[in-house]
Write a structure and sequence with these properties.
alpha/beta, 7 strands
Length: about 200
């Protein structure tokens, strides 16, 4: 048993990440954007929620022409979670790691009706979706899963922020405010909104 086996703290790894919240790495249109991001950071931190994404994370780790440590914070509880499943179609030729899972339900069909855009990471997504659907708020609340936390997927997060321009932006996590990914995510999303999108919103 390693030192982090029984007390794996996501914030510890994110605090030691070498990427800066002020470096937007905005050349997202370049085909090499994902690889360039990986080259600039000291490691990768992920919180995966599907078997397919775990498969692609392992596959990408082997296929990369250079080495970066990969930290996966996925809890063991997702091994038996009924909704944490993938089909073989998610792992065939032409598929790849999803750095985020965007909203694909009713909220995506009518973005103008969305009042709250919720970013989260890990198994809390399944609890949020269950509660949202039970309260019949699928058209009002958009849920976005951030699977790769570091390096931060600025390009994909920007697409989701632009898709729901009238929505309040929030981050949800199970941990207290001084733990989890919040202190890593907050400055990156706020800088992205303020400096890169000229958007007055702030994530909270």
């Amino acid at each position: 048993m390693g030192p982090e086996h029984t007390s794996g703290q996501l914030e510890r790894f994110l605090q030691l990440s070498s990427d800066s919240p002020d470096d937007f790495q905005s050349e997202a249109a370049q085909p090499s954007y994902i690889v360039d991001q990986l080259k600039r950071t000291n490691w990768q931190v992920m919180n995966l929620t599907t078997p397919a994404n775990f498969f692609h994370a392992m596959r990408r780790q082997i296929a990369l022409p250079f080495r970066r440590p990969l930290i996966i914070m996925t809890p063991k509880s997702l091994l038996k979670h009924a909704e944490a499943r993938s089909t073989f179609d998610d792992m065939v030729v032409g598929t790849e790691l999803k750095r985020i899972y965007p909203e694909t339900g009713p909220a995506n069909a009518d973005p103008s009706a969305v009042t709250r855009l919720v970013f989260c990471s890990g198994k809390v997504f399944y609890e949020l979706r269950k509660e949202r659907d039970a309260k019949q708020l699928s058209g009002k609340i958009a849920l976005v899963r951030v699977e790769q936390i570091c390096p931060f997927p600025y390009d994909l997060v920007r697409e989701e922020l632009a898709k729901f321009p009238a929505a309040e932006v929030v981050w949800v996590q199970e941990e207290h405010q001084n733990r989890g990914a919040w202190q890593y995510v907050q400055p990156r999303v706020n800088n992205l909104l303020r400096l890169h999108m000229a958007d007055p919103r702030q994530i909270r």
